[in-house]
Each structure stands twice: as C-alpha cells, then as structure tokens.
Amino acid sequence: MQVFHHISSLRAELAKARREGKRIGFVPTMGNLHNAHLALVQQARRSCDVVVASIFVNRLQFGLNEDWDKYPRTLAADAAKLEGVNCDFLFCPEETEMYPNGMDEQTRVIVPAMTDVLCGASRPGHFEGVTTVVTKLFNIVQPDEAVFGIKDFQQLAVIRRMVEDLCMPVQISAGEIYREDDGLALSSRNGFITEDERPRVSQLNHTLNWVGEQIKRGRRDFLALQDEGRTQIEEVGFKVDYLEICNSRTLKPAADDDREMTVLGAMYTEGARLIDNISLEID
Ligand code: PAF
C-alpha cells in the first residue's frame, strides 16, 4: 500500500491508474479503523481496480464542545489493517493540506435538505463540515465509486443528495452495519464506553428493533412508539438525543402508509454519543 500525505502526489498516481482505464474506489474515514471500515474497503475492492482509503479527522464537522481533540488517532495500526485488506492507496493529509487557507474562510458545501433534523439538530454545522470535506476528497480522488457505512444513515442520505444535486460523477454505495454479538453497532467511539456501561449500551439497538417489530405488527401511533422507545433507553440509564421513525428517503417523520421506514436513534453515554438505525420495508 502506498501512503500519501500530499494531494499532488496522490493525484499523480491516480492519474496513471485512470489513464490505464482502471475503476477507482474510495472509502473516506476518520481512522481508528474497525471491521466495518475494513468491510467497506473489501466492498470497494470487489467492484473497483484501485482502492483508495483516506484518514482525516475533520475538525470542520466537530462542534466546539465535541470530541475532536480526543478522537482516537491510530494511524500506524490503521495502515496495517488497510494493508491486510489489500487497500492500494492511503491518503492521510495534515490539516494544512486540506485547509491551507484556514477553516474560517473555507468555501462550504451546504445541503439544506435533511441536515437540520436528527444528528443535525443536536450537532449544528456537522453536516456542512461533512459535505465540505467529502466534496474536497471527491475532487482530490475523483473516484468512480465511494462507499459509506449505513450506520451513519443520515450522512449517507445527505451525501447521496449532494451528489445528485451537484451532478457529481461518483456512484455512492452503502456498506452494512457491523455489530457485536449483543447488537451494539461497531463505531470508533465505542472505545469511550465504560466497563459499567458496556452491558447496557446494546439497549439502543434492542429498542430500535422493538420499535421496528411494533410497526411490522401494525402499530402506527408513531409518537407514542417513539416515547415508549425513549423510556426503554432512559430506564437503563442513558440520555436519549433522539429516537425517530422516518421515511427512509426523505428522513421526514414517517407517514402511516410509507413503505420504507427507518428507525433512527442516538443516545449519550458518559463519554460518547452513540447512533444506530434499522430500516424496514412494509409489504
Ligand atoms: O463517516 C466519517 O467517518 C466521516 O464523516 C467522513 C465521511 C470520513 C467525513 O469526514
């Protein structure tokens, strides 16, 4: 695997691959890689000739009171893991390479749809930071296909919308959620869960599944269901950020006759904010 810290050298190498007619796959990450990230690389590997991963802890998508400074940086271990799944190129730029004019004056990409609800409501500016850095990364790598995890369901929806609205020539693919045996979704932030909390955090996933089951059995009193779900999580000691039943495509509150719904949840542990979701197709 070749490692690049600079845009120019990565571009030069990718230009060669492109001239040879190779299909380029891209997996953007913030590092601290786990099996779900590696599965995204493997997914890109199956449909592309050259796979690029990036590791960049993008300060622009973190709020002032969020965990940018304590976000785990594990570059050497991450690089070894990427080698293990035959990633071809790793791009890990410094902040000055990505934001040479500083962040305050950085041109932004804003997707107005879907970004002020759910995670966007409690993390103002977060999605603007994501869409801005993803646009920059797409311009640097110019991938034919980019793979994002479904765990960040809202992020995936927002990126799909951005790509559509801005006519970006990249296919967006979704990679499944990887879970621990008790249902906890793999996340780089799971390292912040304390030993005492660990047996209880899978309640988020259990509750989302429970809500999904209730919908499949015909319940359509969504507001009451959401309240009951929130209570289940609070009862095991966590503060709920949101628990909402949404239309899978628009992320608006689900309507009774929607066929594709997603139940999304976010809750706070002592040191982390965990998110998860499950999608349902109603016949
Ligand atoms: O999902 C992430 O890890 C980040 O939001 C992304 C897409 C790499 C942008 O910084």
How large is the count of helical segments?
A: 9
Radius of gyration: 19 Å
Small-molecule components bound: pantoate
In CATH, the homologous superfamily of the largest domain goes by the name: HUPs
Q: Class by helix and strand content?
A: alpha/beta
Which spans have pLDDT < 50 for at least 5 consecutive residues?
none
Estimate the mean pLDDT confidence.
97
Q: Going across the major beta sheet, what is the strand order?
A: 1-4-3-2-5-6
- Whole-number count of domains: 2
Helix and strand string, N-terminal first?
EHEHEHEHHHEHEHHEEE
CATH topology of the largest domain: Rossmann fold
> Main β-sheet, in a few words?
6 strands, parallel
CA-CA gap between termini: 46 Å
The helical percent reads: 25-40%
Number of strands: 9
Query: What overall form do the CA principal axes indicate?
Result: globular
Output the CATH class name of the largest domain: Alpha Beta
What is the CATH architecture descriptor of the largest domain?
3-Layer(aba) Sandwich
- Name the beta content range: 15-25%
Could you characterize the architecture of this molecule?
There is one protein chain. 36% of the residues lie in helices and 19% in strands. The protein is α/β, with parallel strands linked by helices. It folds into two domains: 2-175, 3-Layer(aba) Sandwich (Rossmann fold); 188-278, Pantoate-beta-alanine ligase, C-terminal domain (Pantoate--beta-alanine Ligase, Chain: A,domain 2). The strands form two sheets. A six-stranded parallel β-sheet has the order 1-4-3-2-5-6, sandwiched between helices. It has a three-stranded antiparallel β-sheet with strand order 7-8-9, with helices on one face. Strand 5 (145-149), helix 7 (153-165) and strand 6 form a beta-alpha-beta unit. The termini are far apart. It binds pantoate (PAF). Pantoate (PAF) binds at residues 28-30, 58, 61, 130, 133-134, 152, 155.
